[in-house]
Amino acid sequence: MTGPGAAESGRPGPKADGHPRVAVIGVGNEFRRDDGIGPAVVAWLRGRVPGTVDLLVSDGDPARLIEAWSGADLAVVVDAVRASPAVPGRLHRLILGEGNPAEPYPVSSHGLGLGEAVGLAQALGRLPGRLIVHAVEAADLSTGTGLSPAVAAAADALAAAVLADVSAGT
Amino acid sequence: MTHRGDRTLQAKGLARVEGEGSMYVRVSDGLVEEVRLDIYEPPRFFEAFLAGRSYTEPPDITARICGICPVAYQTSACQAIEDACGVTLDGALAELRRLMYCGEWIGSHALHIYLLHAPDFLGYPGAIELARDHRDIVERGLALRRAGNALMEQLGGRAVHPVNVRVGGFYQVPTASELAPVAGELRAALAGALDTVQWVAGFAFPEFSCDHELLSLQQPGSYPIERGTLVSTGGLAFAAADFEQHVTEEQVPHSTALHARLASHDRPYLTGPLARYTLNSGWLPPLAAEAARAAGLGPECRNPFRSIVVRAVETVCAIEEALAIIAAYQPPARPFTPVTARAGIGYGVSEAPRGVLYHRYELDDEGTVLSARIVPPTSQNQRAIEADLRSFVQARIELDDQQLTAQCEQAIRNYDPCISCATHFLQLAVDRG
Question: Is residue B13 located within the same domain as residue B77?
C-alpha cells in the first residue's frame, strides 16, 4: 500500500543502476487557486518522463522538502510565488546548489516553505546535487479551485521548461 | 511626535497560504486598552464548498484545508458522517484511525517544537540559524517528523492530504508485517522524543499563567486523540452532538473570522495541549507520564510558554500509543465498515494537534450534504490568545516596536495557530499619536 507521495519520507540514495536520481516536486494546494500550479505540472509530467524520475507533491513543509530532495542528483521544484510588484504568470527559473549560496528569489506562497527549506538544507548539508526552482508569479491565492487566466496561460511554457530540465538531467 | 504611553501597533500578516493573521494593539497612557487578533480561516470557504457534495467526499475535501493536520480534518469529518448514518467504528478499524492520528501528532508537534518554537527560546531568529549551530538537534527533529510522516504514509497512502481514508475506515488496510518497518522507525524515534522532552524542559520560561477555562476531549483510560467527549476545567461535560449548545460563534467587528465562546462562561476558553494535558495528564501512558514528571510538569500546566514541553510529552505519548496499537494489531476482516446514506445530522470531534476540531454535517436521504459546519481550534482559541496578549504586552510596554512585535510573535506561537507556520508572520505599523 504505497501511495504516490511515499518517497517523501524516505531518504533515498543514488539509484543502484547508476542513473542519476531526479525528483520533481510540485509545491502547493489545488484548493488555493494559483497555488495549484505546482501539483498540476507534476500531474502533467506523469507518463511524459522516465519512470525512474520521482514525481512528488508537497505542501511546502521544509522537513518534507528536504526529505524529498536529499540524495537526489537533481531536484526540480515548481511553486507559485507572490512577487511585488507582481506580473501574474511571469516565470522565474533559479538554480541553487551545494556550495552555491541561495540567491534572492520571490517569496514563496508558503510561510514556512521553500526559502526556509533551502536555508535549512544548506545548514544541514542536505541540498541536492543541483536544485532548480521554477517559480510562477500568482494572481490569486484565495480559497477555491482553478487557475487564474494569467497563470493558466503560462502553464504550458512552465511545463515545457520543467520537462526540459528533467530531460537534461536524466 | 513620539509619545511612548500612547501608541497604536498594527501588525498585518505576511502573505502566506495556510492562514493569514494580523494583530492590532492600542495603548493609551501606558495601559493596553485593546488587543485584536484577526486570523484568516480557510474552513469557512470549505463549509460552502461542501454543500451539495456526496457524503463520501468531505474526508478528501477537508483534508485539503490544512497541510499540517489533514488527518484531524479527515477524522472529524468521517466521524460526523458516520454518526449521521448510525455507524460507529470499533475494533481494529478504530485502532487504525487512532494510529494514523498518532502519526499526525508526532509530525505536527516535531515541526512546531523544532522549526518554529525552540528557536524563540534559544535566541535564534529561526530554524536555519538554529541548524547552523546545532545540526544534530535539528536533524533529531526532522527524524521525528519523518517517523510521523512514515506512519501517515503507511495508513494514508501519503502524508500530504492522505488518500486512503474513507467514510467507515480505509480503502486498504496494512498487514501486520507491513506495519513492522514503521514500528522500527517509531522505536528509534522514541529515544529522540524522550531526549526532546529533556531538552525543552531546560529552556527558560517566562512566569505566566492563564486562568482560562480549558476544554478538551476526554476518553477515560487513554489520552484523548481521535475521539472522546468534551470536558472542561469549569465542570462542563458534553457530547459532540451538544457542541453548538455549549460553544457559540459570533462575528466580531474587527475580524472576518468568527470567534467562539462558551455559552455558560464569559471568560475565554482554550483548547490544545495545555487543555488536554491539564484535563488528562492522569491518562498518559507510562513513558510519557514519567517524562512529564521528570520535566517538572505537575498534574496541570497553565503557562502557554511551557506548551512546548507539553507538546514534547504528547509526542512521546503518540509514539507509545502507536507502538502499542501496532503490537496488538490484528487486521480487520474488511478495510471499512459499510456506511449507508440516510437523512440526518451527524457530529464529530477530535483533538487536532492545536486543539479541538468540530465538524457537523446534515445529509439528505441520498447522502447529499445539505450543510456543513467546521469549528477549527484556532477560532476557538482567539479570544484566549487576545486576553493573554493583553497582559503580555502590558508587561512589555517599554520595549520598542520591533522587539515587541518579535515577542508577540513568540507569544502567539505558544498556541500553534495556523499562522504560526510562518517564522515571521507579523508586520508592524506604528501610529504614534
Answer: no
